[in-house]
Specification:
The complex is a heterodimer of chains A (112) and B (114).
Chain A lengths: L3 E2 L4 E5 L4 E7 L6 E7 L6 E7 L4 E3 L3 E6 L4 E6 L8 E8 L6 E3 L3 E6 L1
Parallel strand pairs in A: 2-11
Antiparallel strand pairs in A: 1-3, 3-8, 4-5, 4-9, 6-7, 7-8, 9-10, 9-11
Chain B lengths: L4 E3 L2 E4 L5 E6 L6 E7 L5 E8 L2 E4 L8 E4 L6 E5 L8 E8 L8 E2 L3 E5 L1
Parallel strand pairs in B: 2-11
Antiparallel strand pairs in B: 1-3, 3-8, 4-5, 4-9, 5-6, 7-8, 9-10, 9-11
The chains are: A mainly beta (112), B mainly beta (114).
């Protein structure tokens, strides 16, 4: 079945630096990807999404890059702030369009 | 995502008891999804429901688990005869008919089986 995994389980960055969180996916047929942020004790919160016909999408302080050749996603957070500390998940839409497959997540810690 | 209400937030059950988890979707959302999250893991799809219909339950364990989304009222995830391995956070998400691009998650119910 499909699987979505992350390269690094933890990431620590200095406040003000840029963060890059990576994600590999296995289903080349997936056409929609989402990054979620999950703070402790809370539900996942939508950050940004991208469709497979795009290579890059930018939001406020965040950028998602999609490399379909190697089935790789990344989330870039500019000028990381303490409030960015959380677990970040990438998710891909399954073939049926009903399921989202989530990776294990990367725990981001911002050091003041 | 504050619009998706899950209750209770925390639920403790003894082995063998039943657990009922409730999810009230965002007003106007007709699609509900349930996910389970084990500690230090990602979210695993369980079931996708529309009003009065189960659309996809491929992620549901074959026994003891059931879900419903009645015409009126919240969606219910029911776990019968709970075992310790059922301890997890259960998240509900809702979306309008046009799909995931406008989906929101609730805060989750943390089930502890003792």
């Amino acid at each position: 079945g499909e699987s979505v995994g992350l390269h690094l389980p933890t990431l620590s960055v200095q406040e003000g630096d840029n963060s890059i969180i990576n994600c590999a996916y296995s289903n080349s047929a997936s056409d929609y990807f989402i990054w979620y942020k999950q703070e402790s004790g809370k539900g996942p919160q939508f950050i940004i999404d991208i469709r497979s016909n795009m290579d890059k999408r930018q939001g406020q302080r965040v950028t998602v890059l999609l490399n379909k050749t190697v089935k790789h996603l990344s989330l870039q957070i500019a000028a990381t702030q303490p409030g960015d500390s959380a677990v970040y998940f990438c998710a891909e839409v399954g073939n049926t369009g009903n399921q989202f497959y989530f990776g294990t997540g990367t725990s981001l810690t911002v050091i003041p | 995502n504050a619009g998706v209400m899950q209750n209770p937030r925390h639920l403790v059950r003894r082995r063998g008891q039943e657990a009922r988890l409730r999810c009230s979707p965002v007003k106007g959302h007709s699609h509900v999804y349930w996910y389970r999250q084990l500690p230090e893991e990602g979210l695993k799809f369980m079931v996708y429901l529309q009003k009065e219909n189960i659309i996809d339950e491929s992620g549901m364990p074959k026994e003891r688990f059931s879900a419903e989304f009645p015409k009126e009222g919240p969606s219910i995830l029911r776990i019968q005869q709970v075992v310790r391995g059922d301890s997890a956070a259960y998240f509900c998400a809702s979306s309008p008919p046009q799909g995931w691009t406008e989906a929101f998650f609730g805060q989750g119910t943390r089930l502890t089986v003792v």
